[in-house]
Design a protein that fits this description.
Elements (H helix, E strand, L loop, with lengths): L9 E7 L23 H13 L4 E5 L13 H6 L11 H7 L5 E7 L5 H14 L4 E6 L4 H6 L8 H21 L6 E4 L4 E3 L9 E2 L4 E2 L14 E4 L4 H10 L2 E4 L4 H17 L8 E11 L2 H12 L4 H12 L21 H5 L12 H8 L7 E5 H15 L3 E5 L5 H16 L12 H6 L25
Parallel strand pairs: 1-2, 1-13, 2-3, 3-4, 4-9, 9-10, 10-11, 11-12, 11-13
Antiparallel strand pairs: 5-6, 7-8
Length: 465
């Protein structure tokens, strides 16, 4: 075991309130416990395991529609359990927060289909109930099925979704940051005054997409604005992340792809006047490990036997908006512009000029751990790979998918974390404070240079006598 200098490696656990997430088909494995996803104890056990492993957060993915691009139907998604059935991830947060002290909670909410006024209250409530440990993964959505079920013929175009998102963020920033003064809550039992009306301000927002005249219903929560995550790497997604994101997630099958995303993101943030190093970037990965290399390799081959090619293509079709049932498995993937997830398709086509992926290869790849690498070996070998990925690409940490619940996370906590700690590449304890304190060493609020601190609210119209 070598002692190697370098910045600490950070972990998030990538999960979903469903029977399956990024390893379609693995729920059929005899040791998988994902069938317990409706059992509260399942999530409490996971949260306590992750906190013992000093993870930054459990990151809960979500979609608001079914994967129905493949063969033009949701039948394959239902048959193979591809992210359906699927529950509301926000309901898990108070449950897991009650069982932990420091673990953060990143929740995915698609702003395209949720009004900012009610959403701001929901997030403030969770920030209160977690004592400042909530984060929001800002997504605009990519499934037409979600748009149809919420009253639209189809989702907005890719770039227009981000135009709407920019205004959406302005609205919630005004509610979280500007509506209540720090000293608005008086809580004076003697005078009978709880909140001073002069220190609570209507935001008077009237824009292209939203009109919100009133004040925020919640008093200021520990972080005010939840920690902000974002995952888009398209040009418009990168521009959005430059203005809003404190942390971002990237996915790619090779170091070349991931490094390109990281370099583009950090350059864009610096060009916007922010410190590029202050953007925390996590890359998706799956770790398969054991007490020996032989055990890890055997486990990997065992997992691979449970990959479901059709289920993987259901995922890939939903991510990209391209029906891959129409292509032979040995056809190569070429970049096709779509209004779904552009970065998902680009990572298998244009992002790495040295690799031409076939449909079969892409399905086999994402069938175990999604769009990130699979790192296989004993603890020392996996630690070497994690360090190599971080040192080559410039990422801050990893958003860890799982093959089997909870086996994959338990292996990381029991084998990989101690190895990284011994190398000085992983923290040995949490700091006190909010999720922002855990990640940045400061808090609890947005940093002074962040766009959310600089929104302004219009004065209320003067009444006419």
């Amino acid at each position: 075991m070598s002692q190697q200098p370098g910045k600490p490696i950070r972990f998030n656990a990538f999960q979903m309130f469903s029977i399956g997430h990024q390893s379609p088909g693995l729920w059929t494995h005899a040791r998988d416990t994902s069938h317990r996803y409706n059992d509260p104890a399942y999530w409490i056990e996971l949260a306590q395991l992750l906190e013992a492993g000093r993870f930054d957060a459990i990151f809960l993915a979500d979609v608001l529609g079914a994967y129905d691009v493949y063969q033009g139907s949701a039948d394959a998604a239902l048959r193979h359990g591809v992210q359906v059935p699927l529950n509301d991830p926000l309901a898990l947060v108070p449950l897991m927060a009650q069982a932990t002290t420091h673990l953060g909670f990143g929740v995915t909410c698609a702003l395209t289909y949720e009004h900012p006024y009610s959403f701001a209250r929901r997030m403030s409530t969770l920030d209160h109930l977690t004592r400042g440990r909530i984060g929001w993964n800002i997504v605009t959505g990519y499934l037409d099925s979600a748009a149809r079920n919420l009253g639209l013929d189809r989702q907005l175009g890719h770039d227009e979704r981000y135009d709407l998102a920019d205004e959406y963020l302005d609205v919630v920033y005004k509610l979280w940051e500007k509506s209540w003064d720090d000293d608005a809550v008086v809580n004076d039992k003697a005078s009978g005054v709880y909140a001073d009306p002069a220190r609570v301000h209507p935001i008077n927002h009237a824009g292209r997409y939203y009109k919100v005249p009133g004040f925020h219903l919640c008093e200021p929560s520990p972080q005010r604005t939840p920690l902000l995550y974002q995952a888009g790497t398209s040009p418009r997604g990168t521009a959005f992340a430059t203005r809003h994101a404190e942390c971002t997630f990237v996915s790619g099958p090779s170091k070349t792809v991931v490094k390109r995303y990281v370099d583009d993101l950090r350059a864009a943030v610096r060009a916007d006047g922010r410190d590029g190093g202050q953007l925390k970037i996590y890359a998706q990965a799956l770790i398969v490990t054991g007490k020996t290399e032989r055990e890890a390799r055997a486990k990997y081959e065992d997992y691979r036997r449970h990959i479901d090619i059709e289920a993987a293509l259901v995922l890939l079709s939903g991510w990209t908006g391209v029906d891959f049932s129409r292509y032979p498995l040995d056809a190569t993937i070429d970049y096709i512009d779509s209004d779904a997830g552009r970065s998902a398709l680009a990572s298998f086509s244009q992002a790495d000029p040295d690799r031409r992926w076939t449909v079969r290869e892409a399905a086999q790849f994402i069938g175990l751990g999604g769009r990130g690498p699979v790192l296989v070996g004993d603890a020392s070998q996996v630690a070497d790979q994690l360090q190599a990925w971080q040192d080559h690409t410039g990422i801050d940490g990893f958003n860890l998918a799982f093959a089997l619940g909870h086996e994959s996370m338990r292996d990381v906590v029991e084998l990989i974390v101690p190895e990284l700690q011994a190398r000085g590449r992983y923290r040995t304890d949490y700091v006190d404070g909010t999720l922002r304190h855990q990640l940045f060493g400061h808090g609890p609020h947005l940093p002074p240079a962040h766009a959310g601190r600089h929104v302004s609210i219009a004065p209320s119209p003067q009444s006419v006598a």
